[in-house]
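User: what does the whole thing look like in 3D?
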Amino acid sequence: MRLERRLWQALGMALLAAVAFLWATPFLWTLVASFRPEGAGSARMASLVPDTPQTLENFRNALESGAFGLYYVNTFIVVAGVLAVQCVTVSLAGYAFARLRFPGRNVLFYVFLLQLMLVPPALIVPNLRTIVDLGLYDTLPGVMAPYFASAFGTFLMRQTFLALPRDFEEAAAIDGAPWWAIVWYVLLPMAQPGLVAFAIVSVTAHWNEFLWPLMVINDPAKHTLTIGLAAFTRGAEGGKEWGVLAAGTLLVMAPLAVVFVAFQRRFVDSFVFSGVKG
Amino acid sequence: MSLAGTTGILEGVDQEPVVVPRRRPWRRSYLPYALLAPSLLFLGLFTYLPVIRVIVESLYDHPHGTGAVAATFVGLGNYTKVLADPAFRQAALNNLVYALGTLIPTLALALAFALAVQRSSRFSAVLRTVFFFPSLVPLVAAASLFFFIFLPGIGLLDYYLAKIGVRGPNWLGDSDIALWSVIGLTVWKNAGYYMLFYIAGLQNIPRDTIEAALIDGANAWQRLRYVILPALLPTTSFVVVIALINLLTSVDHVIVLTRGGPSNATNLLLYYIFQAAHENFEVGKAAAATLLSVVVLLAISLASMRIMSRGSHHEA
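Assistant: Here's the predicted 3D structure for the full assembly of 594 residues, as structure tokens:
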């Protein structure tokens, strides 16, 4: 009886490990292929067994032919720009909803809520026309603008502020501190975990975004990583360039992967908290 | 943070906040609106204006995207045109198959993964990372990887299938199979993400309910069927909604892998809209199709709000 139980358990573990291996295969292949010398031949390109000697040639080719350096800069500008503006808008709005009383508060809350339902990708066509009207077509601010307001971020900051004790800000208010000083010096330092959670979700979403920047950006010098990678993929039809493509894919995924491994717990918490991507 | 945090996002809307004392009364009355103004400006520009825009644009004919000047009023003409367009019908049908074909295996795997890795051990932690990792990479990068996996003959799939003597079909080139290949990619990419919600949901099930079932002699299947699954119902409803919204609004992989082909077999609604607007410059058609998908999204979301409020009651 006990032996049988153990046997089943071992079998379950083996099955689980097999499924996990299957799940990881695409990444394992990318790692192996990106270090594989070009001369290995396209017939063996799919092998998961690493070749010797390993080479960094593919990475150099990807960086040169794909202008990935430039794409990194553009992606970084978009991600950082979106996040910087969002931090201001969601903190202010979150504070208003959490701490102030005013007519129309509930109505305005639902005005924000609609953004959770009509996610920006659904509205790419009319939004592109708005971007053109604003003179932001083919600019990085045009890629960022639709995300400057975030209902998810606002609700998350509101929740975070609501959970904070009121004693500190009341003390500050009695001392005559203006509202902005209370937000900046008292509330925001305590609300940091909420902001970090929001930042993780926002950065991941915009680092990975593709369709919207593809529509807004025309100039190749303003392409983001995902656009560059897509163009790269479509260009690499021949078996010869697969190592370079694997290297390029790895270059696009690496920054987030590194941050994820470093802050795994926080990532997982943020994503569970978010549900809806910011 | 657990799912309670997620569903609780709407809780306490009516809760009375404390008013921080203020020296000048006019400031008190304008301050909240001033704080909300930046967000409201961008919400207005990119959430409300676009809806008004598609409603108006869908009622006009715009010859080759010339803008409002040359537009003529056609009433519901664009809608009849879109609904009669075989490509649109195909895209709508594909999207339905894609949504259901992805949703069911994704949820089943997400739950299975969650049950398998819920215990905290080193082995479980590694597996959790492995399963979650695909949802962290860009859909475009996932598509790039699968482009190679699905490559006929020399791709990863065919290379290893050949070793066991199986000849794979043309994964992306065969119109009967291409959509299922795209579904396979999406399941691989999303299952680990929804697993997180199931792990959180499993942690919220009180220990004694499961122990009571154990004492009553329920076997593993009975515990799953009669105790765990019912307790996870709020989680499942929530995941279904965010999954459906995701399945209607991401087509990056279709753009990279198939461009809707072969012969529209992998054309999805958003890709149809993208094509109509960006490649064919059919503004009216794109607007009408956008509005139709907006209606579907709203319907899903309204259902979700009811589920979410029920879910938070359930947990409270």
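In plain terms: Chain B touches chain A through 106 residues (CB under 8 Å). The mean pLDDT of chain B is 82.
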